[in-house]
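Tokens as discussed.
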């Protein structure tokens, strides 16, 4: 049976810096949009690359349309808090006074975890937004920051829930937690490459996600996989007097075969340590990286997703 990944509504794409989180977040958002759904691709925190890949302005004020069905938004904790206070402090003048004050900026900068809490709160808010005939977004794909920082974000609602007594903050935190922990709505999708450090970090994160955060898992993406048909030692040495072109081609072949061997080794380790449905994405030799490269990777992902067992199936 095909994996039911796309029945979820909120996808958190997490992983070590540089492994391809933004690329996979874009891939998932395009996959959802191609299913005829309205999807918000939300980037947690700063960064320009995803907006560049999508070819949009990465503003944090309002979602920017990438193409009909897919919008992009950068979520910034301070902006989200200002918006939230706008909802709570119904009197506009009071809201302007608070958000415009110096003290407020100091408070937001200094309060531990506040920006993180508001960022995750904003995702919750967008998830339940109604527009006309139903939900505003059929799905939200979240491009999370590097592992340690994303775990900080994802831990904040539980921390706030535990830290505050009965009242507004505790109630709001409970609603966000209900979303984060709901296997019917949420899926965490880790991204890694098949190399030593990222695989170690992914193994550690997998344990944290299951045991501490208790968040529902989706699919693991292994990005930039090299798959050469030859072992490194099977690539012949250049014959004496060979042209520099032949020497270079053989050197590249040996390098590629070397990477393939490393990837195969760490893929096996991943399979043993992180027992999740897995999609492998090939290394693309491409100067530019834009939506068309994302779509190429999506083609590879779709073929594999169609053969994965449904979540919860043995
Ligand atoms: N499958 C791939 N093949 C080749 N290059 C890739 C692939 N996926 C990502 N990249 C490149 O790797 C770099 C990091 O990707 P990115 O998605 O920005 O990672 P992250 O968001 O985890 O920091 C980018 O320069 C991107 O173009
Ligand atoms: Mg990124």
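Sequence:
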């Amino acid at each position: 049976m095909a994996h039911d990944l796309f029945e979820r509504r909120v996808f958190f794409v997490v992983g070590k810096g540089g492994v391809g989180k933004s690329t996979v977040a874009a891939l998932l958002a395009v996959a959802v949009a191609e299913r005829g759904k309205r999807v918000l691709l939300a980037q947690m925190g700063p960064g320009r690359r995803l907006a560049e890949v999508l070819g949009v302005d990465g503003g944090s004020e309002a979602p920017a349309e990438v193409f009909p069905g897919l919008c992009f938004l950068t979520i910034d904790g301070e902006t989200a808090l200002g918006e939230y206070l706008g909802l709570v402090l119904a009197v506009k003048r009071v809201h302007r006074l608070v958000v415009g004050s110096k003290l407020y900026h100091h408070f937001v900068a200094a309060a531990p975890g506040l920006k993180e809490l508001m960022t995750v709160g904003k995702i919750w808010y967008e998830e339940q937004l109604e527009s006309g005939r139903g939900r505003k977004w059929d799905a939200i794909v979240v491009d999370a920051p590097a592992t340690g920082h994303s775990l900080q974000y994802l831990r904040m609602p539980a921390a706030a829930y535990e830290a505050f007594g009965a009242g507004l903050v505790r109630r709001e935190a409970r609603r966000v937690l209900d979303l984060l922990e709901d296997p019917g709505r949420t899926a965490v999708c880790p991204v890694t490459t098949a190399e030593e450090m990222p695989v170690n970090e992914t193994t550690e994160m997998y344990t944290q996600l299951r045991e501490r955060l208790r968040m529902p898992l989706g699919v693991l993406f292994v990005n930039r996989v090299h798959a050469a048909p030859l072992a490194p030692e099977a690539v012949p040495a250049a014959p004496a007097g060979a042209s520099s072109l032949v020497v270079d081609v053989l050197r590249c072949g040996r390098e590629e075969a070397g990477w393939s061997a490393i990837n195969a080794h760490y893929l096996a380790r991943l399979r043993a340590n992180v027992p999740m449905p897995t999609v492998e994405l090939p290394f693309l030799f491409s100067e530019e990286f834009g939506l068309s490269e994302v779509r190429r990777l999506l083609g590879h992902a779709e073929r594999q997703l169609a053969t994965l067992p449904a979540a919860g199936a043995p």
